[in-house]
Amino acid sequence: MAKLEIVIHPDPKLKKMCEPVSSVSDRIKTICEDMLETMYDAPGIGLAAPQVGLLKRIFVMDCSRDEETPQPLVLINPELVWFSEDKTKYEEGCLSIPDFFAEVERPAEVCVRCVDERGDKQEHHFSGLWATCAQHELDHLNGVLFLDYLRPMRRLMITSKLRKIKREKLKKSSREGK
Questions:
Q1: Which of 3, 59, 107, 165 could form a disulfide with 48 if both were Cys (CB 3.0 to 4.6 A apart)?
Q2: Which alpha helices (H) appear in the chain, and where do they start and end?
Q3: How would residue 177 be classed by pLDDT, with cut points 50, 70 and 90?
């Protein structure tokens, strides 16, 4: 397994629609393992393929608490097949938008149909944080960020700060000869 580099906003890859996975090949299985390793290392509870520069319909997640046994899930070609009318709000963050958080309202429960890393069809019913995470990651596959749910001024402020951070990192790495 290998840790992958996480793409930081603003980056055009994060705003693109992802392509379906045609088959669960050994390469796809390796990507899924690497995504899980990257997510746990970050640390995060979810990671979508475009966040590591791959425009494929894949995301991984694990919303288990620290004291619980890990419950990693791999969702390939996920599709939302049902969502509740009840809503819930969570303060969301994103590995591609480090150090920024905002409250986002989403359906409290969802049902997602997908294929797992073995190529088996699955259907998952999620509620609470699991539902929020699944919807957040599904959004990534459609080129949507949690920032897109915010008011324009707040979205612009966060994007401007991240641009500045990226420029400073680029200057630093070029001074260090990297």
A1: 59
A2: 26-41, 128-141, 152-175
A3: low
**Smallest Cα–Cα separation from 137: which of 54, 33, 60?**
60
Q: How many CB atoms lie within 10 A of CB 168?
A: 10
Q: Which residues is 82 bridged to in the sheet?
A: 111
Q: What is the mean pLDDT of residues 50-78?
A: 95
Question: With the C-alpha atoms ordered 85, 148, 117, 21, is the resulting torsion angle positive or negative?
Answer: positive
* pLDDT at residue 63 greater than cutoff 90: yes
β partners of residue 41: none
Residue whose entry in the numeric block shows the structure tokens 């991984």: 60
Among candidate residues 5, 137, 168, 176, the one labeled active-site is 137
pLDDT in the model for residue 170? 80
**In the annotation, is 137 catalytic?**
yes
Pairing of strands 73-83, 87-94: unpaired
